[in-house]
Amino acid sequence: MGVVQVPKVTDKKASLRKMALKRRMALDPTYRIEVALSVAEYAGDLDLPDGAIVAGYWPIRDELDPRPLLARLRERGHLLCLPVVAEPHLVFRAFDRESDFEPAGFGTMAPGAAAEELRPDVLLMPLSAFDGVGNRIGYGKGHYDTVIAALEGTGPVVCIGLAFDTQKVDTVPAEPHDKRLSGILTESGFQRFAQPPGAASG
Q1: DSSP conformation class of 90
Q2: What structural domains and CATH numbers belong to the chain?
Q3: Using an 8 Å Cβ cutoff, are 129 and 164 in contact?
Q4: What is the pLDDT of residues 35-84, one digit of tens each?
Q5: Among 69, 72, 110, which residue's Cα sits nearest to residue 91?
Q6: Exposure check for the chain: N or C terminus, fewer CB within 10 A?
Q7: Is 139 annotated as a binding residue?
Q8: Is position 32 annotated in a ligand binding site?
Q9: Residue 168, phi then psi, degrees to nearest 5
Q10: Could you tell me the pTM of the whole model?
Q11: Is 23 annotated as a binding residue?
């Protein structure tokens, strides 16, 4: 009698990632632009503390473009920064309308080394897939998992995913080291997730 092979968590995540990204890629480009503009209208629903430093991201491929939302958050008085791939983890450089940008790894852009490095209070994060309780699947590189762990060592950090509704899956198989999202923002609006007992952020 053969041994039944139980799929590994990493294999399950890889399958869900592929499925969700395929659905995202199939979205009409015009629709993606419309969603990017519409989610900016939910800036107030995020209920961020006054003066919170917000890290966005430079969109690549068919990711939800956060730039209209970031512009709205700047209008609300928030300092903004963008991630740069570095060791031992991502760093975040401040930017404004006058900033010069340069390649920052994996097709992204960010301010150059002369820009001030900031410690973000809020991470607006791209992702592959998410579920209804705030578990997320990234792109498999672990950049955000690593930097979240580092940031939590210096204080709380709010993690908000940006995605399209079509990236939602029934259940993400979470592992002990996985960081649950504080909330998710899609074209349907902002959904806040309850944090598990002992969570460092919310």
Answers
A1: -
A2: 9-192 (3.40.50.10420)
A3: no
A4: 999 999 999 999 999 999 999 999 999 999 999 999 999 999 999 999 99
A5: 110
A6: N
A7: yes
A8: no
A9: -75, 135
A10: 0.90
A11: no
